[in-house]
Amino acid sequence: MRDFDLNLVRAFVLLYETRSVTATAESMHVTQPTVSYSLQKLRRRFSDELFRRTGGGLVPTTTAQALYPPLHHALAEIESTLSGAHSFDPATACARFTLALSDLGEVTLLPRLMAALAARAPGVTLTVRPLDVDSAVDQLGRGEIDAFVASPLISSQRVTRIPLFSEGYVGMVARDHPRLRGAAMSVAELTAERHITVFGPTGHHGPRRALEARGLLDRVVLEVTRFSTLPYLVQDSELVAMVPRLVADAFASGHRVRLLELPFDIEPAQVSVYARHSHARTPAQQWLTGFMHETLARPGAAPAQP
């Protein structure tokens, strides 16, 4: 077993979890040929193909499926011990993390993160990049960002999803809207009004889909790319917007807008932190994901992975 080192175990576990040589190489910060060479050594060691290549990625063999649980457990134990020896102390550390957030995240989540950082990790600073759900996983793999928060459910095996909360939607109109004066609007009222929707790279497509399902897209007179523009456009018009409840509360406290209950349910957005697999995170990144979950998650959310 002299040629069977920890990096071989790490390569196997990441290949199993990501089903991708490319993603494994990114997570281990090595080249793809290095991962392919590790896979060859693993195949020789276990006298098995371990992973078969298909159009959808690598598929583990029966042998690989049997090996994964004990090797995953062993790797987790070893890395837990090693990270303890090189732990991240937020109270004394000086570190900078880069996050990708939507404009909603910047309005509703970032203030809470900054307040908690000031109290618990005064030497930690953040850089925020705009979220593009189509490229965020690649950015994470390349090390350009440390984590991102998104509402679309991303099923990529290259990242770990850490649920934070689910969020519904409400209607938002000008405070002095001439027709919509109650606490809720009816289907007939919603149908009669003109609408503004958000269509961009950050997710939250539920309101537009709800209008489309009811044949109301012809009532949309304005599309914008960011939710943060909505209160400025709504407060001086008769337009109706459908907005995630958390940010709607923030808008209502600082703008001349009013919130109304919708006459139908829109599928709640599932807001989550996405990060590298735990085996590929540094001790600092391990702390970051745990900190974000602890600060932002609502009761009942799944615990962050160690």
From TrEMBL:
<dbReference type="InterPro" id="IPR005119">
    <property type="entry name" value="LysR_subst-bd"/>
</dbReference>
<keyword id="KW-0804">Transcription</keyword>
<dbReference type="InterPro" id="IPR036390">
    <property type="entry name" value="WH_DNA-bd_sf"/>
</dbReference>
<feature type="domain" description="HTH lysR-type">
    <location>
        <begin position="4"/>
        <end position="61"/>
    </location>
</feature>
<dbReference type="InterPro" id="IPR000847">
    <property type="entry name" value="LysR_HTH_N"/>
</dbReference>
<dbReference type="InterPro" id="IPR050389">
    <property type="entry name" value="LysR-type_TF"/>
</dbReference>
<dbReference type="InterPro" id="IPR036388">
    <property type="entry name" value="WH-like_DNA-bd_sf"/>
</dbReference>
<keyword id="KW-0805">Transcription regulation</keyword>
<comment type="similarity">
    <text>Belongs to the LysR transcriptional regulatory family.</text>
</comment>
<keyword id="KW-0238">DNA-binding</keyword>
<protein>
    <submittedName>
        <fullName>LysR family transcriptional regulator</fullName>
    </submittedName>
</protein>
<dbReference type="Pfam" id="PF03466">
    <property type="entry name" value="LysR_substrate"/>
</dbReference>
<dbReference type="Pfam" id="PF00126">
    <property type="entry name" value="HTH_1"/>
</dbReference>
